[in-house]
Fold NACHT, LRR and PYD domains-containing protein 6.
Amino acid sequence: MRFGRQDDIRAETHRVWQVVSVNGVDTTITKRFTKLLIAPESAALESEGPGPEEEPPPERARRSDTHTFNRLFGRDEEGQRPLTVVLQGPAGIGKTMAAKKILYDWAAGKLYHGQVDFAFFLPCRELLERPGACSLADLILDQCPDRGAPVRQMLAQSERLLFILDGVDDLPAPEAAPCTDPFEATAGARVLGGLLSKVLLPGARLLVTTRTAAPGRLQDRLCSPQCAEVRGFSDKDKKKYFFKFFQDEWQAERAYRFVKENETLFALCFVPFVCWIVCTVLRQQLELGQDLSRTSKTTTSVYLLFIASVLSSAPAADGPRLRGELRKLCRLAREGVLRRRAQFAEADLEQLELRGSKVQMLFLSKKELAGVLETEVTYQFIDQSFQEFFAALSYMLEGEGPPGAPAGGVGELLRGDAELRCHLALTTRFLFGLLSAERMRDIERHFGCVVSEHVKQDVLRWVQDQGWGRARAEPEGMQEAEALEGAEEPEDEESEFNSPLELLYCLYETQDDAFVRQALRGLPELALQRVRFSRMDLTVLSYCVRCCPAGQALRLDSCRLTPVQDKKKKSSLMKRLQSSLGSSSLSHCKLLDAACGDLSEALRVAPALTELSLLHSGLSDSGLRVLCAGLAWPRCRVQTLRVQQPGLQEALQYLVSTLRRGPALSTLDLSGCQLSGPTVTSLCAVLQHPGCRLQTLRWVRARDGAGNTASQARARVGTWALHLAQEMSPPGPP
């Protein structure tokens, strides 16, 4: 039995409005939906991150078509079928639309045929904001055309049910035990908690969407989830989208060529919603004959340019009224973001005099729900990222802060622990993007107001008070112990919410070199842990390093440094990160040979890099040999080199020979390497060479024979090169 459920879904979702369509054109979901890349968790770990340049191999990221959707709940190698699938990705990537397409395809009989009898779409924000108590049975009846539907019979076969939970990153930390009874009227958070933890309908299938920063926080609440990453558009997809968006082929070619030549802007277009905004702005500029170079290269600048295009397209007489409405819309967005509200009643709009306004029609979508006595009408922003952008913009507008608060009221946004502020991450990033001198001038010009510099100073002080990236001293002898006893590889999993990396994203969004340099001044080091660098991550990190004060230290611990090659510039992380650094430490970072080659080239030109530490980073003999070429380069400034990597033999002898030519190397720490007898002999010979500038050597000598154990090896530790040379020098001249 279907109780008409599939027919109702097809009728309800067959026609959806194009977001902020300038011409008010509506289209079917099948036409609006653009196929994205979806990668299983294992492929996501091995990949470079969002927006791959080439088409993915079939066993990795796949097109979000019906076949891929069917595979989400497919059996694994052990024959087990997951009951919870997590679709994760950044804001605007298309998670909600993909989830709705899955619902539509199921209703059309294309998905989970013979496996799922009923499917329900539950927007988490709406459920959390729903007044009063409700049961899961109530939520099911709300989506059934007949309030007399046999819910008990449906729930009795929970294995035939599919629940799509959209936006679970909005779910707050649990304050009460999850709901276990589908007929218990309770808070929406408890119902969601029961479904996620599988104490409520344990046999039902769950499809969960969440932003990328949130999965770590949800792990304790999910039962054996299968994770997949929504990766947006590939480069070929971007081109297809441009030519689909622009009906005029000449406009499509010109717009696409312009964006393709703007490397950063082109990278941002892997997010479908950002790609749509870029296309919308470019189309207006082309139609008005404007200079396309006005389109900038950060998400914030793209959103602001879109708002500017809305203002400029209005008749001059309507300008003041429209600016006033946008100010009120910013206030509405801000209140919603801070209080985690996505839905607004008609009374909320009437209070701000926004009901029926131009901005309501442009930026808010209307939803009508049949009530017992009358139809309930609610409004929400056309995309959550728009709400977060307008919330950030509110802090820049004069007089928007509450009485007695710092200028702009940014304290309310920034205060608190980073983990608790996770839902404010995108709003904070937008705020930083609006702080650049150029963006502030744009705001003043378009909104006719004066932006207070106090906002920028408040944010700057907040950055400097974060205290992240502080150096952590290791106990004396720990390095030797780890090296000889075999340091355990840390589990290769990313931290729940990487606040240091998020802060770097915020600084990058400003594109204000002076501000970033001032913000980073006083921090002893930039420290990142457990980051799987995507291409955008590398772009952000390299920009911040370029803006660092001279002599800044960088420490990467347990990070995945997948080489990222640019077809034209042939540049990678290692090449770009050494510009102004004084010290660089890579620990457990799996340094591949290709990255060693890039680092070797960087050592030849890095003007300030005097310390380099490579600690248990998977160095191979060939990789170390390549590095030695850079260390021996006449312009290399490295004075201190630390290498901890058991198993190196041939390359260590090559490194020893480099000491004769190293122009600046004065301290060598090999305490994490087991030196063989021939290597020690070569080392002692080189120490007596007149070209060797080494003053300090730290090493652990491994004894020969059967007694060569880790505990015995620790017995010989030398610290002064001259002393070691005299003790270990072979007979006769070198």
